[in-house]
Amino acid sequence: MQILSGGHSDFFGLDMGISAIRVVQLRGGGLTKSLDRYGQAPIAGTLALSDSKTDRQRVGQAVHDLIKQVGITSSSVAVNLPSNHVFTTVIDIDKMPTEELNKTIRYQADSYIPTPVAKSKIDWAVIGESPKDPKKVELLLSSAANDFVEARLEILQGIGLNVLAFEPDSMALVRAVVSPTATLPQMVLDIGSAATDLVISIGGVPHLTRSIPVGVQAITRAAIQNLGIQPAQAEQFVFKFGLVKDKLEGQVYNAIIGVVESLVAEIDKSIKFFASRYPSAKLERIIVTGGASVLPEFPLYLANKFAINVEIGNAWRNVSFPANRQNELMAVSNHFAVAVGLAERD
Questions:
Q1: Ramachandran region of residue 228, left (φ > 0), alpha (ψ -120 to 50) or beta?
Q2: Residue 5 has what pLDDT?
Q3: N or C end: fewer C-beta atoms under 10 angstroms in the chain?
């Protein structure tokens, strides 16, 4: 789903997250491209979320420095729009010619999106026949506030970049970690620092997207509060013991299970909603990526909860690279899905 687009092919993917900036440049075409360069740099969450001009310039400088450090050779870029700044929904609309459909959506968009049309970037795509009414089609509709998109554009143009496209995280995630040949519904869970992005795709196209305000920070906070330990130790315990019940007498499990269950409850709601709209489309698997994907026993916990296959996402599944870089790349795979997905755009 492009919010802003161009037609250039020589570009790199840029994921501007809350805790880090990540870049990926690929070579070649087709379903499998070759890895050229990639890299990441940490960034303070307060800086990434700030609206001050000085902080925006500092973010731009951080992007500039990372590009230089990694050796990115293109000035053209596809950039993410984080899920908490994008509204995406699926609607049913009467079948009509494309030109007429475009006018109708512009006219009716106010009734679907949370921000005024005049203050929003809007994009849409027909994704298939409506499962509810044969006279209608399904439309994937996305919007983002002009202020946010233009501020991000200003940051990047200020360091000499040519922005070819802004794309929601959900689209990039699916492109990176879902097999391009998958036809049955797949759920992607990207568990980041502050939130979890949930996407259910059919044939590589998102049909349900959500941002759940539970992430690694919430899990770590629970460990801090319930175990009475310092943040650094809490993070260490969370990622070492996770949901393992027979280590440290289950103290870590008991400390964080409440937060994990709140996340799982939201996942359950999404699965039920998807099943109600697409009763004949059975969810085939859950693909987990992001920081908490490596939480011990978490994938097994999900598999047992929903009686469904759960796998750890591989951001590089559609990317070729030398065999001697396998360990290096897999060690960071859970953080690079969005950047890779952006770089894989056709």
A1: left
A2: 44
A3: C
